[in-house]
Known about the structure:
The protein is an all-alpha fold. The protein has a single domain (68-317, 324-419), classed as Na+/H+ antiporter like fold. Helices cover 71% and strands 2% of the residues. The chain has 19 helices and 2 strands. It has helices at residues 19-44, 48-59, 72-92, 96-99, 103-128, 144-153, 159-168, 175-187, 189-205, 210-241, 249-267, 272-286, 289-316, 327-350, 357-365, 371-376, 379-382, 388-407, 410-417; strands spanning 171-173, 420-423. Strands 1-2 form a two-stranded antiparallel ribbon. The radius of gyration is 22 Å and the shape is globular. The relative contact order is 0.16. The model is unreliable at 1-14 (pLDDT under 50).
Amino acid sequence: MVAPLADRTGPPGGLSLDPIESLILTAGVLLLAAVVVSRLSDKVGVPTLLLFLVLGMLAGSEGIGGIAFDSMGAAQSVGTVALLIILFSGGLDTDVAEIRPVLAPGLLLATVGVLLTAMLLGTFAWWMLGEYSSFDIGPKGLTWLQGLLLAAIVSSTDAAAVFSVFRTSDVQPRRRVRALLELESGSNDPMAVLLTTAILGLMTSGSGGAAGVALDLVVQLVVGALGGGAVGLAGAWGISRLKLSAQGLYPILALAIALLSFGIAEALGGNGFLAAYAGGLALGNRVDPALREPLRSFHDGLSWLVQIGMFVVLGLLVFPSRLPAVAGVSVALALFLMFVARPLAVVTCLAIFRPAKGELAYVSWVGLRGSVPIVLATFPASYGIEGADAIFNVVFFIVVTSVLVQGLTLVPCARWSGVVEREESE
């Protein structure tokens, strides 16, 4: 409610706003800045994700905006809702006919690849930051389980980052390679979430061995995929047969299906993020073709909106003054992840499919980390894990390093590896 002019305080002739009005103005400024920043990203080639994060940091308590925000719980909630919408939109926009030829390698990368990446990076982190380390995560440095937790958080590639790079780049890899990378990035987030929560459960309760964790992973993957797919198919059947009075109601109905896919899967013991992706995939490929494009267009815009909100909120959560303390450790972990863990995982998973060397090299390099690791980095704090702040700062630094190094070199790498399908400038 807008307050009467007589009730407002402030200097004569100055600007005085109620809290809600100030919030609306701030949101408008941030959204406008985000759109302008995205255009700048297209011009100079800097990944949009990074610029959104920087925008949030500039608006934060240590930036020019001065917005005080340090709630891990609120950031986690915002990130959860944003991720399910992003994954649903990614599934909605994916053509099954394109991913069918790469289904096996894509799913192998999304599951075994994530596990191998976490194991390799976790072991390296434990070796580098072990008992005699001064890393501020505990009185005796980093244990192997803590190293595995840190690695699990950053083990998945980011769907939002990969999709945005492919959408805005003039250089496009071959359709098969692009389909493989989009399938992997859209479906490997649930595996990272499962690994992270399973390790946190082991650290806090101390119960449940490796067999129990493995069984839980399988159950969550199966229930999430089947549950989300079933809800998506039912939604496609209903949307195609409903005759709504307003066309604008169909996208809202699709959003309801996204939320139901996530919620029902979680209630049944499955993984909601995988269910959201599977629900979008089923809906987008089975809905009436006349409704498909309007639904995709609406959810593409909604996906951009929640991406902006999520990245800005996560940027607000960062205190730049704390990052130099973890810079050396973070860069070392990021380089090991990019040059050792990711390539080894990709080669191990794809060797049986005998891809061309150029394709193998390019897939190994396109391992951008993004919003999912930063959101998962808020989980240790909610579990009461010692050194949760240090974990968050390290993960944030790894993401920024990955986006800068890999995001800025995707086009040269595509040309060098010979996987370019077309260049729009030609």
